[in-house]
Design goal:
Layout: E1 21-28, E2 36-43, E3 48-54, E4 60-63, E5 68-70, E6 85-91, E7 96-101, E8 107-111, E9 116-120, E10 136-141, E11 147-151, E12 157-163, E13 166-171, E14 176-177, E15 196-199, E16 205-208, E17 213-218, E18 223-229, E19 241-244, E20 250-253, E21 261-264, E22 269-272, E23 281-285, E24 303-306, E25 309-310, E26 314-320, E27 326-334, E28 339-347, E29 351-357, E30 364-372, E31 377-385
Amino acid sequence: MKKHLFPIILLLVGNTISAQQDFFALAGKDSPRIEFSDFRAMNSDGTSGEKIFTVDSQAKVFSQTRNSSVSEDKAAYNNSQATNLATLAYDSSNNNLVYMPMFSSNIYVLNQKTHDITLVENNVTRVTSCDINSHMTRMASGYDGNIYAINNSGTQFIRISKKNNQYTVDDLGIIQDDALNGKNSFTSIETGFGGDMVADAQNNFYVFSTSGNVFKVSTKELQAKFIGKISGLPENYSVNGAAVNAKGKVIIASAKGAALYELNLEDLQAKPLPGDQNMHIYDLASKYFINDKNASANVFANLDIYPTKVDEQLINISINDKSVKGNLKLTVFDISGKNVMNQNLSVKNGNLQQQVYLKNLVSGAYIVTIAEESGKNLLTKKILVTK
């Protein structure tokens, strides 16, 4: 199947999805071979939500390189609705789905609302159709707002970034095995190939191989450390998709037609979800991250910070709650936890509408908190500065 062939307190940000819809799936047809069916939202219990885009949907594809619309050969491996689609990530800043076919270096960005697709052609990714080692089979959004992908053998670790409405692709290097991995090698087809990956709040990644092995990949050291094998799965269960849900657990799925499982990373114990029992899923994606300790949900319904994607160095503070009074403190932290900015706020009669200038903040992800003078936290939200 796919990939051989071929806080925890969570930050509830991003564009609105139905309350129950937790993550996204790249789903396949009920077939023994790789055969793309659709992208769909998934509910927290493992049942299918709405279908977003299908193999039969009308697609308008715009080439970033050629700056024009293009027509694609639907019989080829490198088109936006190819049967062999294998990777998926959710770009919460733009509410887009990012994906790649397995035998191609093409990157596609799907606008969920319009169904317009941007084709990102790149010369960085070295994918050869006859070399299964080179196929991109793991993809996830990073905590810094970029999209990351790793090929089967770990010889290419790429970052997909967007700046000034243009996507760029960077090769971050080769991922090596930790010296203590032993027979559980990240680069071996028996123990490390395929699967999917998720990110944590330090912008490291957990990679799940089809065999159920779990590796933690350090982005700074470019090293994969074996942390264990998933238990609780049926024999011969092929792990092909992974995503973090709203509870901070990892959801895993199979391309072979099986139930979805919820995984606790602390003990690697998997428990089946009660939803659909015969799903063919090639990849999963979500807006959540592992160990997002710096973030929490809004405990007041009428407090907000927006926009979450900041391209003009201004954020809006909106408070309309009579239980919120007096002086408040706004603090901005970078993703390492360093305090980079403070500002005092004053609420009168439970109401405040104010713009805050994010002076001297470089592009990247930040955590913004609003707290009372006593130190009680009222609101925490992640923002992405893209100036």
